[in-house]
Amino acid sequence: MPDLALPLGRPPRVLVTGAGGPSGVCFLRALDGVAERYAADLDPNGAGLYLVPRAYRMLVPPGIVPGYAEAVLRLCERHEIDVLVPTVDVELVALSRAAGAFEAAGIRVLVSPADALEACLDKWRLAEACQGAVRLPDTRLVGAGEPPEVEGGFPAVAKPRSGSGSRGIVVIRSADEVAGLPRDGSYLLQEFLPGTEYSVDVLTDGNGRVVAAVPRARDKTDSGVVVAGRVLDLPELSGLAGDTVRTLGLRGVLNVQVRENRAGKAALLEVNPRPPGGMSLTVAAGVDMPKWAVAALLGLPLPERIAHRETAVVRHWQDVVLAPRELGDMGDATEAARRGAEGDRETAG
C-alpha cells in the first residue's frame, strides 16, 4: 500500500462529504491511521461525523443549493484540507465545475469532469452516450407521443431519468401501465433484465486509466445499498465496466451496475460516478480503493493493475457511543450552516 505521508511530509488532511451515508463511512474507516480525517454532512446525526474528533466535524448545506461549492471551499481553506472526497450525487457537478478554484487553493478533489457526471446522472443521456460502446438494455424515453415499446415486451422496467438507489423504479406489466407514467420526459421505459445483478467498483488513475474493476454480486440490498454480497472474479464484467468508464471519461472511484439479460449476457444498467455504498466489500477483497484514490490525487504512482480476491461479506450496523452534548453541539451548528446557506443564496441572487 502507498505511504500517503510521503508527498506532503505528513499525513494528508482528507475531508469526506456525505459522512452519514455508507460510502462516506467506508471511506473514513479506510483512511483511519493513514490520514487526518475530516467529515461533513448536512445531518447532525450523520454517523460518519462521529468517527472523527469533534473539531474535525462539519455541517454543510444541501449540495443542490447555490453557493454550495463556495461554502465547501471556505471550509477546506479554513481547515487546510489537502483532499476533498464528495460522496453525494447532487454535489458532484457543482464541485467539478469549481475544481479550478479548489486546485488554485492547493486542494485536490476526487471528482470526474462535469460533462461526464451529467451523462451519468441522467439515465437517458447515459444510454445515448454508451450506445454502441457496451451492451445496453433497450431503452426508450416516455414522452408526449405514443407510449413506447421495448424489446422483449412485458414485463418492462420504468425508472426516473435521475435519482439514486431504487427510488421511483417500478415493474410495468401492460401497455395500460405505460400510459399511466409521467409523459413529460422524466421517465424511461427499459427492457426487463431477468438475470443476476452485479455492481462493479472501478478505480482509475488521474488520467482515466482503469487500475481495478471489482465485480460483486448484490445478494441482498436495503434501499438500493448492498448489505450482503460476494466479490467475484468475472473478467467479462470487469471489461464491460472498464469500457463504460473509458467511454464516458470518468475519473477516480465509481460504480457500474449491470444485470444479465435473457441470454445471460450482462448489460449496463447505470453508473454511480462517486464512491459506492458497497465499497467495503471491495476493500475486504484486497483493493483498498479509498487509499489508492487519495494516493493518486497526491501524485503517487498507482500499479498497472490491482488484483482482487474472491470473498463474501455480510454487513451490519455498528453503534457509535458518545456524550449527549456532542449531538447537541452539532444541532446548534446545523442552524448556523442553514443561515450561512441562505446568505450565499442572497449573494448569488
Mean pLDDT: 91
How many E strands? 15
The CATH class name of the largest domain reads: Alpha Beta
In angstroms, what separates the terminal alpha carbons?
47 Å
CATH topology of the largest domain: Rossmann fold
Helix-strand makeup class: alpha/beta
Strand order, sheet with most strands: 14-13-10-11-12-15
Percent range of helical residues: 25-40%
Shape: globular
> In this structure, how is the largest beta sheet organized?
6 strands, antiparallel
Helix count?
11
The fraction of residues in strands falls at 15-25%
Q: N-to-C SSE series?
A: EHEEHEHHEHHEEEHEEEEHEEHHEH
Radius of gyration over all CA atoms, rounded: 21 Å
Total domain modules: 3
Topology, pairings included?
Elements: E1 13-16, H1 22-30, E2 36-41, E3 57-59, H2 68-78, E4 83-85, H3 89-97, H4 99-104, E5 108-109, H5 114-121, H6 123-130, E6 139-142, E7 156-160, E8 170-172, H7 175-179, E9 187-191, E10 197-204, E11 210-222, E12 225-231, H8 235-248, E13 253-260, E14 266-272, H9 279-284, H10 289-297, E15 311-314, H11 324-348
Parallel strand pairs: 1-2, 1-4, 2-3, 4-5
Antiparallel strand pairs: 6-9, 7-8, 7-9, 10-11, 10-13, 11-12, 12-15, 13-14
Supply database-style keywords.
single chain; 349 residues; alpha/beta; Rossmann fold; Dna Ligase, domain 1; D-amino Acid Aminotransferase, Chain A, domain 1; 6-stranded antiparallel β-sheet; 5-stranded parallel β-sheet; 11 helices; 15 strands; 32% helix; disordered C terminus
